[in-house]
Amino acid sequence: MVKSAVRLVAVLALVVMGVAGQPAKAQMSDQQMLVERSRLVLDAFQNDPAFKDVRVYVQNAYAVLIMPQVLKAGFLFGVNYGTGVLLVRDPQTGEWGEPAFYGLGGGSVGLQIGVQSSDMIFTIMNEGAVNKLLAHGVKFGADAGVAAGPLGVSVGAATTTQLGEDVYAWGMSQGVFGGFWVDGTLVLPKNAWNQAYYGRPIQPEEIVHQRKVVASAEVAALHDALTRF
């Protein structure tokens, strides 16, 4: 009886040790999840007939900034906040670079009550606006002109020279505000997120011009979603 009990304990110990020795199943990091959520935002815009005109803006953009779930809340004072990814297009090949992580934040004063969540796409239409964003971030309306995307307006085969603003903002909104606006909003790089994702201190300009031979699965899916526009 004692020997049987000892043998059972030994077997259980080996099983436990074997389980403990197995590598833990890799969990997706916050950065990886944000890249995947950004891909879902692109899919949602592509599948919504109300946003059919986003296509030509993405096709002509020098860069896109994708912000899943920008939150806006207010009671007299309004605040908006979001985290997203910036991707820059190679002007020679048309290929999209690696994602750099950016934060969005701003405030406003006035009579405003409610909470709103918006999935947003910003199409950046010229190289100057991209360079400002990469160098130090931008304040929409001051460093870069921004306009709401003209829903329901067909721009046909427009080129960047015909799209007058530096940035166009598109948002799918849920909440009682019933709309969104980003004039005066700051967009700045999230250095800690970039370092966590790439494993070392790295500047946005270096990130977005990288062209990996084999992209991670979530980045490859994000690139594929962009090329479908």
3D structure, described in words:
With 229 residues, this protein is α+β, with helices and mostly antiparallel strands. The protein has helices at 2-21, 30-47, 54-60, 127-136, 191-198, 204-208, 217-227, and strands at residues 63-88, 100-124, 138-139, 146-148, 167-175, 186-189. It has one domain (30-227). The protein contains seven helices and six strands; from the N terminus they run αααββαββββααα. Strands 1, 2, 3, 4, 5 and 6 form a six-stranded mixed beta sheet that branches. Helix 2 runs parallel beside helix 7. The protein starts with a helix and ends with a helix.
Keywords:
disordered N terminus, 229 residues, six-stranded mixed sheet
Uncertain runs are: 1-25, 151-162
Q: Name the shape in a single word.
A: globular
Largest sheet: 6 strands, mixed
User: End-to-end distance, in Å?
Assistant: 72 Å
Write the layout of secondary structure elements.
Layout: H1 2-21, H2 30-47, H3 54-60, E1 63-88, E2 100-124, H4 127-136, E3 138-139, E4 146-148, E5 167-175, E6 186-189, H5 191-198, H6 204-208, H7 217-227
Parallel strand pairs: 4-5
Antiparallel strand pairs: 1-2, 2-5, 2-6, 3-6
